[in-house]
Amino acid sequence: MGNLSEIKPLSPVVQKIVLPAYVQDHAFEGRALYPAVESMQQLAAAAAGKNISGRIMGQAAFAKFLEIAQGQDEIDAIFELAPADGQSLTARLMTRQKMPAAGITRTREHARLCFFPDHKALVIPGAPAVQTGEPVFRVNAADVYRELVPFGPAYHNLSGDLHLESGGVTALIRAPQLPEPGGPLGSVFVLDAAFHAACVWTQRYRGLVGFPVGFDFRVVMRPAVAGGRYSARAVARPGAACGQDFDVWIFAADGRVCEYVRGLHMRDVFAGRRKPPAWICAKKQTAGGKT
Predict the structure, then answer these.
(1) Res 290 pLDDT > 60
(2) Residue 287's pLDDT is what?
(3) Does 38 share its domain with 153?
(4) C-alpha span between 60 and 92 (Å, rounded)
(5) Lowest-confidence pick of 102-106, 167-171, 253-257
(6) Same domain, 201 and 150
(7) What is the mean pLDDT of residues 150-154?
(8) Is residue 290 included in any domain, yes or no?
(9) Is-contact 193 172, C-beta < 8 A?
(10) Domain hosting residue 49, numbered range
(11) CA gap 276, 4 in Å, rounded
(12) pLDDT surpassing 60 at residue 289
């Protein structure tokens, strides 16, 4: 592949993102929010072909929610690409928001990624076990979507029981058969469901409702496919000043690693307004499941 420094910074381009109807199911506190995984798919598609595959990325930040109005079927998005250091390409997804009271228009950044050339993905660590010697706490996926991650049916893609310990969480995932727009990262629902599993862990062991606000590094080796069955393992990392960081592995049914995320940052984006239900919090539990 060529040197990315040969790519000139591109002027911001306004491009419509067509919204599938199922995106309305990605709603929290009465607001439909454009999923971070969809933003990554859009940015990867914009970057693919610029001497990179779009499947190796890092320095991700999801700064502002992109709210979707009821019945809205497209977004006027702004894409900006620029070479970073000769070895990477920075991509941003933004929108313009009119402020009627002030009579001005503001540009808001919703997602930022740095894409890397393929050789950055050569060394992927093996997934460690999360066993800590303590009893496993199980939460059924039905309880997750009823009480912990109350998105609509299109995003109910965890299946069976989640297995939680203080060291991390493992979960089964089924990618739905929905008419996704497609892109270089494969089905977006699988990583999104892994985020849900990490959110459940933060509610039990940190007492907060954690949402993904960014990550350090991600590589997609085998893009997920609609209808496929997968498993995820999110291992808690020490040292986060607030919220919780994880390393995440997603496996195909045959045990091969499909993708890896290092340093997923889960944070309380609701300023403490939303609290976990008492039954999930570790100090309220007995081992083995919901009481």
Answers:
(1) no
(2) 40
(3) no
(4) 10
(5) 102-106
(6) yes
(7) 95
(8) no
(9) no
(10) 4-120
(11) 45
(12) no
